[in-house]
Amino acid sequence: MNIIVLMLDSLRPDHLGCYGNYWIKTPNIDGFAEEAIIFERAYAEGLPTLPVRTALFTGRYTLPYRGWQHLEPNDTTLAEILWDRGYRTAMISDTYHMHKPGMGYGRGFDTVIWIRGQEADPYVIDDSIKINLEEWHKINYTPSESLKGSIYRGVEAFTQYLRNRSWWRSEEDHFIAQVVKTAFRWLEEQVDRGFDDKLLLWVDSFDPHEPWDPPEEYYKLYGPPEYDGKPIIFPCKGFVEEYTELELQHVRAQYAGEVTLVDRWVGWFLDRVKDLGLWENSVIVILSDHGEPLGEHGIVRKVQPWPYEELSRIALMIRHPDYPGGRRIDNLVETVDILPTILDFLDIDLERVSPWSVKPDIQGLSLKPLIEGEAE
Fold it and tell me: If you ran DSSP here, which 8-state letter would residue 169 be given?
């Protein structure tokens, strides 16, 4: 059995048709959900990006023990557990926070490929690339008073992002497309070499995280026709009162367009998995790490550590070829439960470890008994 995980950063479940949304086009993820088990009340136990990955990779709680930091030397990760049992493992990601020096999130994977350039990633360092900030709304680079001093919000961060994507010419240059095409090439290489079983592929897409920068045709699906201001793709004003109502509608449309863009390329990737003959011997997990406030409770973006529903609730769908799809589970589940669930699906007994391995100390609970109706 193979394990394929698609992490879609900052994807709000209530922006997917399969979770009840009626106005955003997500036909591919919705189609996947029809074959998957949908968890209605899945939550991140700690926030944001790196604590969530720690919980997912280790099955251990981060809150309140650790926050935004590297993996600890004594952590045992999913990739390490499966590597020790003969799996070929890969992580393909543009989530540059995991790639920062000393973070260690690539540990245990045979192959790690970083797609560079997301957000404020110091990737394209070329002063000859001229950026005209006059083409963009000031909200992209003028932070709220409470956010001044943050290295991720302001002129420096926004200018860096614009340099990073200055070479784009088509939709296929967008980060989500780069990530899933690279992931497909890794799978294709394994199959061509005769390996179509015991594969772990972790696809970690930073999209639909901001900057919300979809191709124009995706934005036009949702954009208010009466908005005539400059584009806002990287809003760094944290509170509703700092926006006009039309600006808020514009920002929400940019995010919705990004969600539809992500859905299009997730569908492309899932079709390639089928083409490779891996569909019926793979457990496929689609999830997000957290959501994104878009004006609810007076907040825009996750600029305040207030874990309201729109921020802390995540999308979680698991497709297992042996379980019928379309079932919805209302029980409360958390990010720490993903690792033990995967191990349970693979019948991996953690009491049986090789002499040179460390037995992992997992705190999450397997969701398999819940799926099978054997536990509440």
Answer: -
Burial profile 217-228: b = 16 or more Cβ within 10 angstroms, e = fewer: ebbeebbeeebe
Q: What is the mean pLDDT of residues 38-62?
A: 97
For residues 116 and 287, give the distance between their C-alpha atoms in angstroms, rounded to a whole number: 22
Helix 175-192, helix 245-275: angle, nearest 10: 10
**Residue matched to tokens 């189609």:** 31
> Which residue ranges make up each domain of the chain?
2-371
Whether the per-residue pLDDT at 273 is higher than 60: the answer is: yes
List the Cα angle 315/270/48 in 5-degree steps.
Answer: 30
Residue range 94-138, pLDDT digits in tens: 999 999 999 999 999 999 999 999 999 999 999 899 999 999 999
Q: pLDDT tens digits for 157-202?
A: 999 999 999 999 999 999 999 999 999 999 999 999 999 999 999 9
pTM of the model: 0.96
Q: Which two tokens stand for residue 192?
A: 């061509």
The letter for the amino acid at 257 is G
One-character DSSP codes across 299-311: BBSS-S----HHH
Fold classification of 2-371 is: Alkaline Phosphatase, subunit A (3.40.720)
- The residues that bridge with 332 in the sheet, in sequence order, are 41
The mean predicted confidence, pLDDT, of the chain is: 94
Overall average pLDDT of the 21-33 stretch: 98
Q: State the first-to-last Cα distance of the chain, in angstroms, to the nearest integer.
A: 26
For the stretch 55-87, what's the b/e string if a residue is b when 16 or more beta carbons lie within 10 angstroms of its beta carbon? bbbbbbbbeeebeeebbeeebbbbbbbbbbeeb
Tokens 């760094």 -> residue: 236
Q: ∠ at Cα 73 (110, 87), nearest 5°? A: 25
| Cis status, amide bond into 13, omega within 30 of 0 | no
**Res. 153 pLDDT band, cuts 50 70 90:** low
Q: Which two tokens stand for residue 57?
A: 């990779």
Other beta carbons within 10 angstroms of residue 200's beta carbon come to 23
